[in-house]
DNA sequence: TAAGTAAGCGGACAATTGTCCATTTAAAAA
DNA sequence: TTTTTAAATGGACAATTGTCCGCTTACTTA
């Protein structure tokens, strides 16, 4: 028996849910909308909604796809035109783009944070495509730096992991809102920090 | 009129709540106990419980006091006997102790994470005593390193902040549970990372 | 000691999340 | 086309969080 495809009604519902959620989120903010409300507005049952997206987090992750692909495009564009530059220079540009992205999408990123870090069945943010993309890119740049002799060899994977983790929305939100730093200031601090970190 | 002190019945309830919560948490785990259950077991109303602790997070933070003061003692003891060593050496020891602490108390630390990072009224973990203690200590060690000429001057405050934030339970849990690293491995990675970071 | 007052109390209540399962229905198989 | 099958549905339900507010009581003041 062949693999069944997604049923047409299911596909239609998927689109309706995504559209409805997107609209509601933009109108009331991510926190201001409940799953029940999304289901009701979309004209589907709670069960139908939860079948696809087991939390608001997953729903947001899906909705982030577009903006994230715009981010990766901008990164690719940047790296293409920075092809001749040192790894150090590339890192600076990449960190800058990444922080711009986080600041732009902070509300969404905040929402996809898993509510229970330690739950056994949680799907880790650390294994989400966006996170893996950033760590992968960072590791590539750091590896290039090592190959080019710009810096002595080290555990680039762990470094990329830790650096990426430090961009989390929580930290960013605190620095901008509670500490009153501007996005540019935060960017400058991180760039300086990682520059020193990897190229001291 | 003089400042009213806490009423005796209120103080009694505070203790009962703390004792009950502690007991229930140890029996069923932090996630396995609801605020309602705590209130009921303690023999107080929901309102009474929430009056003092507006979330499980706050309750856990209060319960962490003891273990955290044991941690600070161990740090103080360590720094006393390491008085003659380099700042670099002190950093290594401190990071090691801090990671030991996180790994021991991970369930509690997980619970005190604010559920909404971006809420306007949230009391930031970054302003909690434990966090401030660690950043303060880290900054002091880094400043010492700069003064002693072990490393060129840099923004030690931001560095301490970022480093402390990177110890968050989420990261730690991922590395140990999902990646299968042992506590010792994680410790070694962090020590190496920060050693390179600040003393490259 | 008596009276006044504000802190404290507690449980009903509203809101939300997430689960469950009898029923429906699209699509494959015959 | 008819039958079969399992995916899909939806809304009732259970569990939890957090708020609200009229009542109670410990402490202050006179």
From TrEMBL, chains A, B:
Top-level lineage group: Bacteria
DNA-binding stretch(es), residue numbering of this chain: 34-53
HTH tetR-type domain segment(s): 11-71
InterPro entries associated with the record: Homeodomain-like_sf (IPR009057), HTH-type_TetR-like_transc_reg (IPR050109), HTH_TetR (IPR001647)
Keywords assigned by UniProt, alphabetized: DNA-binding
PANTHER family for this protein: HTH-TYPE TRANSCRIPTIONAL REGULATOR PKSA (PTHR30055:SF226), HTH-TYPE TRANSCRIPTIONAL REGULATOR RUTR (PTHR30055)
Protein name: TetR family transcriptional regulator
Organism, scientific name: Paenibacillus glycinis
């Amino acid at each position: 028996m062949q693999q069944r495809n997604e049923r047409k009604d299911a596909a239609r519902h998927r689109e309706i849910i995504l559209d409805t959620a997107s609209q509601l989120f933009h109108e009331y903010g991510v926190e201001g909308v409940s799953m029940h409300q999304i289901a009701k507005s979309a004209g589907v049952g709670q069960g139908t909604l939860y079948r696809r997206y087991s939390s608001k987090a997953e729903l947001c992750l899906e909705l982030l796809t577009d903006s994230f692909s715009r981010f990766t495009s901008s990164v690719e564009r940047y790296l293409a035109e920075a092809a001749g530059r040192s790894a150090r220079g590339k890192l600076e540009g990449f960190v800058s783009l990444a922080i711009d992205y986080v600041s732009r999408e902070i509300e969404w990123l905040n929402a996809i944070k898993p509510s229970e870090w330690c739950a056994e069945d949680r799907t880790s943010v650390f294994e989400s495509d966006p996170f893996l993309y950033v760590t992968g890119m960072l590791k590539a740049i750091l590896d290039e730096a090592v190959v080019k002799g710009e810096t002595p060899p080290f555990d680039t994977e762990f470094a990329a992991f830790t650096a990426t983790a430090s961009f989390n929305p929580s930290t960013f939100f605190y620095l901008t809102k509670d500490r009153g730093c501007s996005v540019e200031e935060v960017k400058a601090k991180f760039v300086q920090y990682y520059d020193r970190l990897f190229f001291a």
